Amino acid sequence: QVHLVESGGGLVQTGGSLRLSCAASGRTLSNFTMGWIRQAPGKEREFVAAIVWNGGGSFYAGSVEGRSTVSRDNVHNTVYLQMNSLRPEDTAVYYCAAAHWPTTLPEEYPYWGQGTQVTVSS
Fold first, then answer.
1. Of 46, 19, 23, whose CA–CA distance to 34 is shortest?
2. Distance of CA 66 to CAs 3, 20, 42, 75, 99, Å?
3. Which site among 52, 55, 67, 74 is 20 to 30 Å from 29 CA-CA?
4. 50: which residues sit within 8 A by CB, 6+ positions away?
5. What confidence tens digit (pLDDT) does each residue in 31-58 have?
């Protein structure tokens, strides 16, 4: 089992930045891909970014590429999502999730945190 706890969401103006954190515990994380997935009201879950824990390779959705960076801290078992140049359409609940392989499909992530709200005002 993997336990995930997000933090760092909040209200920010258009063009601002936020850094989300995901503290992970439980099973050894070296075999997992850690992802960020968001869901806006009335919309489907949307993949944002992910990082392969063992090796550190990362990949992004086109909507955030160039504005966001996903990283990990091996010592503290924490994954981060740095988001810059935020837009109102980035408003959503952001979830940290863990998958057994690199994937952009939310349904392939079996472990989820409780989510953190990000609101971008125009």
1. 23
2. 29, 17, 26, 26, 23
3. 67
4. 33, 34, 35, 36, 58, 59, 70, 99, 102, 103, 104
5. 899 999 999 999 999 999 999 988 779 9
